[in-house]
Amino acid sequence: SISRLQSPHLFRQQCYLGGKWVDASGGQQVAVDNPATGEVIGHIPDLGRADIEQAIVAAEEGFKIWRGYTAQQRADYLFAWYELMQKHKDDIATLMTLEQGKPLAEAKGEVDYAASFLRWFAEEARRVYGETIPGAKPGQHIVVTRQPVGVTAAITPWNFPAAMITRKAGAALAAGCSMIVKPAEATPYTALALAVLAEEAGIPAGVFSVVTGDAATIGETLTGSPVVRKMSFTGSTGVGRKLMRQCAEHIQKVSLELGGNAPFIVFDDADIERAVEGAMVCKFRNTGQTCVCANRFLVQRGVHDAFVERLAKAMSELKLGDGFDEGVTQSALINRAAVEKVCEHYRDALGKGARHVSGTAPEGARGNFVEPVLITDVSSDMQLCQEETFGPLAAVIPFDTEAEAIAIANDTPFGLAAYFYSRDIHRIWRVADALEAGIVGINEGAISNPTAPFGGVKASGLGREGSRHGLDEYTELKYLCMGAE
Ligand code: ADP
């Protein structure tokens, strides 16, 4: 419980806006619970439209101050924030495990990963370069600068309660923008702890705010304001599409990181040991609840049995339990609906001819705890091939030829991550070119890091986060045309 915290002040049940900690003006609150136990952790404000409008006014004030700072000053604040996250790693991880469920070791890993975005963008802040272009007429000079877009907003999901915020806010603040974050209902306390640390780092009032409450109301208020110039969203395709429509009203810039349906292809010439290692990392991180989790294992027939056997063995070593218990690697799914989705995908697949290989069938789940389960003989007509399972169900599709694998891999509206294992250099180039995905892991199952551009194609989204490209989402080019004397 909260009594595990070394610094209890990191647990805040108020929102942070305009540099102040506030309740809803009408006093409304909503409860937040622990997905492993069902216990209520605490309450958060259910802010109304007027409260959000206040946050926007404060963010506009914050922006005016922040944009006037030098890049070096902004970098120093981001570094201070980064260091505070490191200092309080254990507490942030505790809050995260409490509200999200992930194993404590993974939560600590996420704090490191999340903080790394603040460090990365602190470093990049001083490199928001422009360019000069030879004039179009004699004596003319053309200069291009990058300006912050202004007040920005972020709506984030529950699966990475810290990292999905820092990779947006790090870039926004480095570029000179202010940002209002609406975290997922399920995981507000990690977000509010980040706000406590932003305040401690001395980041000026209104530059970084965290608001909680009804998602649709907050989304409508943020996109309904001409002051907000950019919306960055990570979450489901349905909500992303809706927000993109809403952003049309005031022509707000929009970045979307939506669902995936990652294929993980193992060719006959793959190093099977390494493929199994990569598969475990990429399928079972966060108990299968990441948007880059392998959703479909495509395995060539020559290595099918060997791969399936080794994967089953590796899966049998996973340990399911409360995220706070020692040695646990798989923990509670976020809620009952998540459990039901895994059950449904499993039932649908078996009903259409898939074969159970190992693990306990998800119907046997106690509470939100689903055992890792492996099935094979999966085919494209099954539900799990159309949409993300977001749980510990590993599904294998056998295939014969490279062309067949590519066709199956691309047969989805999504295009976030894709993975494949091969040792043939020509095949590696061919397949890397042919996969319709924003991110391709080649003999690698862990592809997320702050130095590389993260994002998808097709219905998986727009824009990139992390890397130097992540900053582009928060700047606009301004071209200065200097006439001849
Ligand atoms: P998930 O299925 O992962 O929960 P969602 O897209 O529902 O994905 O949630 C991602 C984020 O979007 C959360 O912060 C959630 O509160 C928010 N959200 C949900 N519905 C809306 C909406 N209509 N407008 C704005 N934000 C929304």
Automatic annotation (TrEMBL):
Keywords, ordered alphabetically: NADP, Oxidoreductase
* Any single GO BP term: gamma-aminobutyric acid catabolic process
- Identify the SUPFAM superfamilies for this entry: ALDH-like
Keyword Repeat set for record: no
InterPro entries (alphabetical)? Ald_DH/histidinol_DH (IPR016161), Ald_DH_C (IPR016163), Ald_DH_CS_CYS (IPR016160), Ald_DH_CS_GLU (IPR029510), Ald_DH_N (IPR016162), Aldehyde_DH_dom (IPR015590), Aldehyde_DH_Superfamily (IPR050740), Succ_semiAld_DH (IPR010102)
Give one GO molecular function term: succinate-semialdehyde dehydrogenase (NAD+) activity
User: Which PANTHER family did the record assign?
Assistant: SUCCINATE-SEMIALDEHYDE DEHYDROGENASE, MITOCHONDRIAL (PTHR43353:SF5)
Q: What is this protein called?
A: Succinate-semialdehyde dehydrogenase / glutarate-semialdehyde dehydrogenase
Lineage, broadest ranks = Bacteria, Pseudomonadati, Pseudomonadota, Gammaproteobacteria, Pseudomonadales
